[in-house]
Amino acid sequence: MRNLILTTQIKTMNMVGKVKKALTSKSGEGFVDTAVKILISVVIGALLLGGLYILFQDTILPTLTQRIKEMFNFKG
Questions:
Q1: Residue 64 located in a structural domain
Q2: One matching Pfam family, short form (predicted)?
């Protein structure tokens, strides 16, 4: 019975050691990976905003201003 308790204690201590090692491990995702992800998201966001700006400037805004002027120049 004493051997069983001792074996269980040793296995528990080994598990606690593995868990501590896993939690304090500094390996994983590095700074370069994170920087590349941020850079890609900024570039894609800038492209989307640029596309929306071009769409609104050339297509939507001229017709919108024309419709607003026509609405206020109503001569019933």
A1: yes
A2: DUF6133
pLDDT digits (tens, 9 = 90+) for 4-52: 889 999 999 999 999 898 888 777 667 788 889 999 999 999 999 998 8
Model pTM above 0.70: no
Confidence check: pLDDT of 55 > 70: yes
Residue by residue, what is the 3-state secondary structure of the chain? CHHHHHHHHHHHHHHHHHHHHHHHCCCCCCHHHHHHHHHHHHHHHHHHHHHHHHHHHHHHHHHHHHHHHHHHCCCC
Sign of the dihedral defined by the CA atoms of residues 19, 25, 31, 33, in that order: negative
How many domains is the chain built from? Answer: 1
- Provide the domain limits for residue 70: 42-76
Tokens of 75: 């001569």
Taking alpha carbons only, the member of 52, 32, 50, 53 closest to residue 42 is 50
